[in-house]
C-alpha cells in the first residue's frame, strides 16, 4: 500500500503524486488519461488504461487430459479473461476438437485464431448485453420447465422425456457460468460497475441465487436418472403424495425468487417461516417402498430431491433478505 499527502497548489487545486514504480509498470506518464471511480464505501479508485488491456491469459496444453483442459478453460472464463490462448508444442486434431467443444459449451466463447501450436479463444459476450436479472429469470424458467417434465417422466416412467430433461441441465449450467463470468469481470474491471448499474456486492447476491437454481436443476436431472432406473411406474397413491410435495417445494422456490426480485423482506420472511414446519415425508415413502421394493431406491431419490430443492428455496429467501438492505 502506498501513502501520499494531499498537496494544495496556489490556485486551490488538490494534488496527489503517483508512485513512480507503479506508474512505470502500468504505462502511466505525462498526458496519460486515467479514470477516477468513486466507490460506495467513500473511496476513490484510480484506473489506468492498461487495466483493461491486460485482460488476457495463456493456458499450457501439454500433459492435460480433456477434463483437466475443460476445468482450466472454465476457470479462466469465470475469472473474466477476454482472450484465452491455449498453447502446446503441437496441438493434435483431437485436442482441437476438444477445445472447439468446450468453446461451444460456454456463452460467447469463440475461436479467434489457430496455429500449429496455439488456439486463441475470445469471449464476445458483452456483460451489458446480458442483464443479470433477465438471466436469473431465464434460469428460473428453464428450471421450472425441467421440473414439470421431470415429475411427469418419473410418474409415467417416460424414458425419452427423462433423457431430454437431463440434457437440458446443460442449458442451465451455461447460463450460471455466464453469471459467474460477469461477476468475475466486475472484480477485474471496476469501471463496469457504473456501466452495468450494479455494484459488486449486489452482483454477488445474484450469483448466489444462480448457484442455488443450478442445484435445483441438478435435482430435476437426478429425478430423471431415477426415472430411468424404475422397474415399473410408481403406484397412483405415491404419485399423488409426490405431486403434493412437489407443489409445496416449488412454491417455496417461486416465492423466494419473487422476494429476491422485488427485494421484499416481508415475503422472504414468510417463506422462511415454513422452514420451522418440516413435513413428515418418510413414512409414506417407506410405505411405497414396501409396496414396490424393486423401486425403493428411485422412490426415495425423488422424495429426497424434492425436500432438498425446498432447502435451496430457503437459501434464496435468505439471499433476498441480504440484498434488501443494500
The number of helices is 12
Strand content: 5-15%
Low-confidence stretches: none
Helix content: 55-70%
What is the terminal separation in angstroms? 29 Å
- Would you state the CATH class of the largest domain? Mainly Alpha
The strands making up the biggest β-sheet line up spatially as: 5-6-8-7
Mind telling me which CATH architecture of the largest domain this is? Answer: Up-down Bundle
- The structural class is alpha+beta
Count of discrete structural domains: 3
User: What is the string of SSEs from the N terminus onward?
Assistant: EEHEEHEHEHEEHHHHHHHH
Output the CATH topology of the largest domain: Methane Monooxygenase Hydroxylase, Chain G, domain 1
Amino acid at each position: 500500500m502506498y501513502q501520499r499527502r494531499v498537496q494544495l497548489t496556489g490556485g486551490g487545486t488538490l494534488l496527489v503524486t503517483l508512485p513512480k514504480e507503479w506508474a512505470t509498470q502500468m504505462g502511466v506518464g505525462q498526458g496519460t488519461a486515467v479514470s477516477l471511480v468513486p466507490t460506495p464505501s467513500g473511496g476513490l479508485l484510480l484506473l489506468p488504461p492498461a487495466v483493461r488491456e491486460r485482460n488476457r491469459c495463456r493456458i499450457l496444453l501439454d500433459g492435460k487430459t480433456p477434463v483437466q483442459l475443460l476445468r482450466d478453460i472454465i476457470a479462466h472464463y469465470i475469472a473474466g479473461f477476454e482472450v484465452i490462448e491455449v498453447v502446446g508444442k503441437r496441438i493434435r486434431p483431437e485436442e482441437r476438437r476438444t477445445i472447439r467443444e468446450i468453446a461451444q459449451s460456454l456463452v460467447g466463447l469463440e475461436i479467434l485464431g489457430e496455429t500449429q501450436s496455439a488456439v486463441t479463444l475470445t469471449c464476445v459476450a458483452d456483460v451489458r448485453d446480458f442483464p443479470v436479472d433477465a438471466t436469473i429469470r431465464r434460469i428460473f424458467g428453464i428450471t421450472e420447465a425441467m421440473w414439470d417434465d421431470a415429475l411427469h417422466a418419473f410418474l409415467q416412467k417416460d424414458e425419452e422425456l427423462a433423457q431430454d430433461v437431463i440434457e437440458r441441465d446443460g442449458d442451465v449450467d451455461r447460463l450460471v457460468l455466464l453469471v459467474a463470468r460477469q461477476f468475475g469481470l466486475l472484480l477485474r474491471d471496476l469501471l463496469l460497475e457504473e456501466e452495468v448499474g450494479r455494484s459488486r456486492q449486489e452482483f454477488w447476491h445474484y450469483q448466489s441465487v444462480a448457484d442455488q437454481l443450478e442445484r435445483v436443476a441438478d435435482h430435476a436431472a437426478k429425478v430423471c436418472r431415477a426415472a430411468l432406473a424404475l422397474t415399473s411406474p410408481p403406484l397412483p397413491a405415491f404419485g399423488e403424495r409426490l405431486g403434493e410435495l412437489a407443489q409445496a417445494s416449488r412454491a417455496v422456490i417461486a416465492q423466494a425468487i419473487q422476494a429476491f426480485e422485488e427485494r421484499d423482506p416481508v415475503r422472504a420472511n414468510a417463506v422462511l417461516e415454513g422452514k420451522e414446519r418440516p413435513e413428515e415425508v418418510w413414512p409414506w415413502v417407506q410405505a411405497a417402498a414396501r409396496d414396490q421394493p424393486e423401486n425403493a431406491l428411485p422412490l426415495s431419490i425423488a422424495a429426497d430431491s424434492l425436500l432438498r430443492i425446498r432447502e435451496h428455496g430457503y437459501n434464496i429467501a435468505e439471499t433476498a433478505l441480504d440484498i434488501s438492505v443494500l
